[in-house]
Amino acid sequence: MNAEQLLIAKPLRFCGEPVSSEQLALITQVVRRCSGLSRTELANTVCELFDWTRPNGKLKTVECRQFLEQLQERHLLQLPAIRNKGRGKSQKIALTAVSAGTERLQGTVKDFKPISLRLVNTAQQRTLFRETIERHHYLGYRIPFGAHLCYLIEVAQPAPTVVGALQFSSPAWRMAARDDWIGWTDTLRTRHLQRIVNNSRFLILPSARIKYLASHVLSLASRCLVSDWQASYHVEPLLLETLVDSQRYSGVCYRAANWFELGQTSGRGRQDRTHTRHGASPKRLFVYPLRADARASLRGDGGQ
To answer: Beta 105-108 vs 13-14: how paired, if at all?
Structure first.
């Protein structure tokens, strides 16, 4: 009996709400493709995709993990083994001298080349990344859910120096402007969503007054992310997306790096469960195709 037949025989529900065959297909895809994540991290990823949150905006992680384990009991998916050490939990970021910043750097990109993106792998790099984002980014640091890669931005001249940070993570489940531009159905979105990657954090330190640095970094990222993401998650990304706060930024650096704007979000935010805050904090949606046929492939019309 396949997944659809099982749903007909015994419909699935999460916290009283029905789970469709399309949602189940995406859940099994996430679990299969993100096999390196813990069960808690997988639960967080699924909650993010479907906006399974409490009235206060927090994810229903515990309930979702139990739901995933029920799916495993019904032989609908195979979860990773239970780990002894908990991961993916909230944590308070203690700020130390390592993220205090550097002396002011001023000039253009050519004065500080080569610019490099250092993939965060070690405990020391993770500490520096988290503290830097917590101290200098207006959104602060939040543990990313699901698939994610983090980079430290480093200049070589006059001495190797970290001047910023960059984070890529799992995409939003629904965004009307993106979904309309791609032209996909719910079924196609379920099938191909994990081939979109979200640029969820981008920071250039206030002390780095380097012209064209931001757009240069975005160009570097579009080249190195594909191989790094494939090596980590065995999925080739086809499209990058990001949301720019209209009240703070105009997205100039994204445009300079050949990203293009698709439109604005409603501005509701995840905590607006009664749909009363439309336009309260709209974000500009920018995308960057990583292949010429990205749009067609996401619709299922192009190569895989």
So the answer is: unpaired
Tokens describing residue 272: 């607006």
Strand pairing class (105-108; 208-211): parallel
Of 87, 185, 106, the closest CA to residue 145 belongs to 87
Q: Is 161 helix (H, G, I), strand (E, B) or coil?
A: strand
pLDDT in tens, 33-67: 887 788 888 998 899 888 888 766 778 888 899 89
Q: How far apart are CA 49 and CA 30, in angstroms?
A: 10
Strand partners of residue 14: 17
CA distance 154 to 166: 11
Q: What domains are there in the chain, each with its CATH number?
A: 3-73 (no CATH), 103-299 (3.40.630.30)
Residue where the block lists tokens 């493709």: 33
What Rg do the C-alpha atoms of the chain give, in angstroms? 20
Tokens of 275: 């749909």
- Provide the sign of the torsion angle of the four alpha carbons 35, 38, 41, 42, taken in this order: positive
The verdict on pTM exceeding 0.85 is no
Cβ contacts of 234 within 8 Å, gap of 6 or more:
33
> What is the Cα–Cα distance from 257 to 290, expressed in whole angstroms?
12
Coil/strand/helix, residue 186: helix
